[in-house]
Protein 1
Amino acid sequence: MTGSGEDYVIARQKKNERRKQRLAIISIISFAGSTVFAAVPMIQRAMQSPQPEPVSVESSLQQQVQGYELVLQKEPENQVALEKLSLLRVQLKDFKGAIAPLEKLISLHPDRQDYKTVLDYVKKREGENPN
């Protein structure tokens, strides 16, 4: 009897192992299917939606220039706005446009040597590249 009991236990273990394997395969297939069903619509939307155009550096600098010009309309002697405006215009290679804010900074702060140095540089560059 012990032989048939052991055979039964071994047969039962093999049957349980096959069930576990089937369950694992079904689980893997279900997981893969649900992933595909979730990913496909997302990929389709990504392909169909228009991509926003990248903002150019120059247009970003132009927007900043406009912002500082608005500040200077309200506060014509705003030191920070004058500094940033002149630096932005230098970055945009608008040397002629950078001269006026720098001259105003020098008139407001004659002790600042750095303003005079930048003005000399801008005037030199403006002479090299007249627009």
Protein 2
Amino acid sequence: MSHVKAAGSKAHQGVHIVGKRRGIKKYSGEQVISGNILVRQKGTVIHPGKNTKMGRDFTIFTVIDGFVSFRKMTGHKRGQFYVDVLEQPIETVEKSKSKVSEISDK
């Protein structure tokens, strides 16, 4: 038997496995329809929020038509990420809040 291992022999014996295609499928602000997959993940890295549900393989999908929004929790749930589906885009919600503040200032 040889006392010297052949160069690179172990590196090429591994099996090549295709990726699982996990990750975020719809990003913040994108328009989605009911049933669209938002996140494919292993475990609860991202939690389901408003108008979203989680499948048994931790896939997060939308229940209504709307726009995707991500948020990071504070307080005792700090560090957790949630994905929501809102009926209006985020810009529209912020504009309507500013209009309300303008009216209340008068």
Protein 3
Amino acid sequence: MLPSPPLRLYTRAGCCLCEGLEERLRALDPPPLLELVDVDGDSALQARYGLRVPVLARAGGFIAAGAPPAGAAPAGAPPALAWVDLPPVPPRLGGERLQAWLAAHGAVAGASAPGGTPVGDGP
């Protein structure tokens, strides 16, 4: 079985919904590879997400660092993960239901994603 793609959780300090989602994700068996990103540490992320946290994103392939959206990768540029924001996670999902939700949105190994918004690598 292929490993699950990494997940990124956009969060902020003191956000009880963010903390709850992090706890439910870490309680899964096996727990996903999870990266926490504080949106208040970056003005662009703060502007993008505002009060919409928590936002969960999955790795959606690779993009060339610094490349224009439709352009070719600069010579020698290292690849960077592209992130796809997932729809809001229902706050009462946990355990097997959360695992099924992640699978339905392409956030666990072997699942196909129904779509999403590709985004850049961020900070």
